[in-house]
Amino acid sequence: MKAPKTPCIGICSTTSLGDPVCRGCRRFSFEVIKWNSYGSQEKKAVLQRIEKLVSQIFENKFHIQSENTLKVELRRFNVPFDPELSPYCWLHNLFKKRKDLTQNLSAYGVSVHKEFSDVPVGQLIAEVDSELQILSNAHLQRYFKVPS
Question: What is the pLDDT of residues 92-142, one digit of tens each?
């Protein structure tokens, strides 16, 4: 069994800014630091938590019409993604690494749900990013008893 890949996308705010939750991959700072010492089960648990949070938020605003198109475009722009995770995690990586390229989501096999179609893409990206940060911080506070 192959060990799970790191979710790192090269935007680490835990090491550069001291954030408790990475703004890039959404791991907690202690998970970033200890990642290489984690076994496969620990890594999978971290990835499953991130995947659930990302999918929960992204599925409410976006629809992936073509996973294959999204994969092709991610590879074309060298955006890291884990094919074992939900395509919504791939979309998260695209938004974090190349939000400058995401004005035409249909080129990536992605659409916006009808109720958000009047919202500018940049604003939607900022909203999902904010929601993810809030949920990740709440999870950290609740389950790891980190002082606020």
Answer: 999 999 888 778 999 999 999 999 999 999 999 999 999 999 999 999 988
Q: Which two tokens stand for residue 29?
A: 């700072």
pTM of the model: 0.91
Q: Considering only CA atoms, which of 56, 58, 96, 50 is closest in space to residue 74?
A: 96
Whether 55 and 86 have beta carbons less than 8 Å apart is answered as: yes
Can you tell me the distance from the alpha carbon of 3 to that of 147, in angstroms, rounded to the nearest whole number?
Answer: 32
Joined tokens for residue 114 = 């009808």
CB 25 within 8 A of CB 102: no
Task: Report how far residue 110's alpha carbon sits from residue 92's, in angstroms, rounded to the nearest whole number.
Answer: 12
Per DSSP, the residues of 82-137 read -TTS-HHHHHHHHHHHHGGG-S-GGGGTEEE-GGGTTS-HHHHHHHHHHHHHHHHH
Other CB atoms within a 10 A radius of the CB of residue 128 amount to: 20
Q: At what angle do helices 87-98 and 67-76 cross, to 10 degrees?
A: 30
